[in-house]
């Protein structure tokens, strides 16, 4: 029997919340399907679930695909290795616009973050609907972007982090040596909805492939500014126990770092699609230095 809940939109283009989601028992298959349907429609879905257990967190993640066991970030330990701990006290931060791990050949399709410790103020997260941003482009720009690809490179934010003293030189060398970069289409089609979305971010995308550098910089600068329009955006002010699930295929996000010296601790699961992804499958499971919400 399905656990009843209702879906309340939080924005005209992106964002909704699940109301009266009952976690007293095991999540039914129908409930998981209903959560997925709400996520696909609204792209970011808020669950108010302070009682959620790690087992329930993993059950939701497993519904979507194969949860990641992260190489560098700590996790909850035996039996819960797929739940990563993101803690500002450990220096973890993601205050930049990005798709999670877009430098991989097949990045995660869904990410979900559960609030454990929150600062007294601040620490909000913002999401942008890249489908809505694409829809608002002119027909000529859509035609121009058709077939173009851009390079996503993990080294780009690591260089900035080193310059600002956020990471040590040793960590920088360790991460850069992995050479995590991949070429992706600038416009991707969602496998479930068929909607097109821009697949770029100012954090990981370094340049557009096979066009002059000056043209690449100009086009990317325009697209990044276009995506920042407030009508494409959803901002969540966290309450303790909130979980937000977002569609990493069609949104970028930014975890605002405005709460120092207070602590912000999240439990996170990122999910890969279950279908084979050629010889890079192992590479995905061992993804290094992913950013988080």
Number-wise, the strands total 16
Mean pLDDT: 89
* Residue share in helix: 25-40%
* Shape estimate: globular
CATH top level class name? Alpha Beta
Strand content: 25-35%
Low-confidence stretches: 277-293
The gyration radius over C-alpha positions equals 18 Å
SS content category: alpha+beta
Largest sheet: 8 strands, mixed
Number of helices: 8
Q: How many individual domains?
A: 1
CATH fold field value: Double-stranded beta-helix
- What series of H and E elements makes up the topology? EEHEHEEEEHHEHHEEEEHEEEEH
Organism: Comamonas testosteroni (Pseudomonas testosteroni)
InterPro entries: AtsK-like, TauD-like_sf, TauD/TfdA-like
Keywords: Dioxygenase, Iron, Metal-binding, Oxidoreductase
Domain TauD/TfdA-like: 7-269
Q: Your description of this structure?
A:
Helices cover 26% and strands 26% of the residues. It is an alpha+beta fold and 293 residues long. Strand 1 (6-9) and strand 2 form a beta hairpin. The protein has helices at 29-42, 54-64, 130-135, 139-145, 155-163, 169-176, 213-227, 281-285, and strands at residues 6-9, 16-19, 44-48, 66-67, 84-87, 110-117, 125-129, 149-153, 181-185, 187-189, 196-198, 205-208, 233-236, 242-247, 251-255, 265-272. Helix 5 (155-163) runs antiparallel to helix 6 (169-176). Strands 1, 2, 3, 4, 5, 6, 14 and 16 form an eight-stranded mixed beta sheet that branches. The protein has one domain (6-275): Clavaminate synthase-like (Double-stranded beta-helix, 4-Layer Sandwich), CATH 3.60.130. The protein contains eight helices and 16 strands.
């Amino acid at each position: 029997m399905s656990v009843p809940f209702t879906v309340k939109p939080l924005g005209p283009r992106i964002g909704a919340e699940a109301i009266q989601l009952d976690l007293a028992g095991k999540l039914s298959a129908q409930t998981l399907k209903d959560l997925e349907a709400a996520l696909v429609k609204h792209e970011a879905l808020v669950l108010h679930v302070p009682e959620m257990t790690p087992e329930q967190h993993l059950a939701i993640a497993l519904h979507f695909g194969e949860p990641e066991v992260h190489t560098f970030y700590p996790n909850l330990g035996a039996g819960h290795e797929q739940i990563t701990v993101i803690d500002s006290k450990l220096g973890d931060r993601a205050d930049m616009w990005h798709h999670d791990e877009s430098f991989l050949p097949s990045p995660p399709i869904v990410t979900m973050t559960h609030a454990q410790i929150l600062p007294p103020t601040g620490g909000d997260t913002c999401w942008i609907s890249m489908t809505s941003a694409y829809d608002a482009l002119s027909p000529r720009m859509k035609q121009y972007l058709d077939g173009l690809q851009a390079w996503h490179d993990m080294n780009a934010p690591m260089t900035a982090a080193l310059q600002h003293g956020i990471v040590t030189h040793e960590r920088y060398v360790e991460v850069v040596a992995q050479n995590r970069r991949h070429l992706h289409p600038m416009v991707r089609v969602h496998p479930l909805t068929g909607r097109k979305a821009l697949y770029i971010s100012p954090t990981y995308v370094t340049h557009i492939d096979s066009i002059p550098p000056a043209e690449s910089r100009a086009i990317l600068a325009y697209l990044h500014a276009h995506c920042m329009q407030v009508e494409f955006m959803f901002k969540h002010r966290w309450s303790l126990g909130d979980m937000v699930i977002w569609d990493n295929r069609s949104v970028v996000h930014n975890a605002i770092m405005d709460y120092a010296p207070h602590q912000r601790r999240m439990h996170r699961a990122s999910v890969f699609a279950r279908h084979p992804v050629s010889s890079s499958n192992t590479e995905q499971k061992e993804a290094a230095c992913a950013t988080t919400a």
